[in-house]
Amino acid sequence: MGIRGQVRTRDGWAVQHAVVTMTDMTGAQVLRAAVDENGAVRTEAALAPGPYTVIVTAVGYAPVASTALVTASGRAEVGTVVLARQGGVELPPPGVWSLDPAHSSVSAVAQHLGISSVHGRFKEFGGRIEIFEDGGEGSHERSRVDAVIGAASIDTGNALRDKHLKSPDFLDVERFPEITYRSTRLTPVGPDRWTVHGQLSLRGVVRDVDLDLSYLGTGPDPWGGVRAAFRATTELSREDYAMNYNQVVQAGISAIGATLRVELDIQAVQGENLPEA
């Protein structure tokens, strides 16, 4: 008897603070119940048979209304109700998430001779993402990202080029072994897109850098953990970080372009520790 159902996010997580309200066709409230820690609602009092309106609300989420039919047994099954973030904004569940280098990539692309691209990647990096509890408007924007990259781990597939990139002409890895990024705030720009505002420290120079971030979703992994996936891009000017070396070939074309496109494909594991796999 009563009402049965579950309240979940788009990724399948329980919305533990949701409230379920039922009204009859005249608009009179006949039931109001909070979900349990698993996002489930289950009441025992029998309801009069007939159609009802079910409204599910939760702080930070857009309300959902649907029609439910109470059968002769006095029970209504509403199934799984999916709530979207208020304004459509999505992030992983709150808490700490650790970057998994084994299943992530940090790469940069530079134009070469004005006609093609040189691709490089950093093989050593780590970081931490902290998602704040959604307590209403603006709370998610306080979530933060901290990342560290080993500058000497640059790999472009050419040993001579990599040696030059590690030299004082470019990354100067002896003096500046780490590249760091620390976010200052997040701004939502779409249902699953954010602008991450932060500061990048490279070669001892600190500049404001914004990342265009897409949140790709969350799910379980084969090792018993929970993972979230992101993709982020930005563009950097080499000259902003005192990497002014260049070689001009015919027709005034630079051998290496002044702009670097940075591409991040990130998996993060819920919690402080990463799996070995």
Give structural notes.
The chain has one helix at residues 159-166; strands spanning 2-8, 19-23, 29-34, 40-42, 50-57, 64-70, 75-82, 95-99, 105-112, 116-122, 125-131, 144-150, 154-155, 178-190, 193-202, 205-220, 226-237, 256-270. By secondary structure, the protein is mainly beta. The protein folds into 2 domains: 2-84, Immunoglobulin-like, CATH 2.60.40.1120; 95-270, Beta Barrel (Lipocalin). It has an 8-stranded antiparallel barrel with strand order 8-11-12-14-15-16-17-18. A 4-stranded antiparallel β-sheet has the order 3-2-5-6, with no helix packed on it. Strands 4-1-7 form a 3-stranded mixed β-sheet, with no helix packed on it. The protein is elongated and about 80 Å long.
Structure keywords:
single chain, 277 residues, mainly beta, Immunoglobulin-like, Lipocalin, 2 domains, eight-stranded antiparallel β-barrel, four-stranded antiparallel beta sheet, 1 helix, elongated
Structure summary:
With 277 residues, the protein is an all-beta fold. It has one helix at residues 159-166; strands spanning 2-8, 19-23, 29-34, 40-42, 50-57, 64-70, 75-82, 95-99, 105-112, 116-122, 125-131, 144-150, 154-155, 178-190, 193-202, 205-220, 226-237, 256-270.
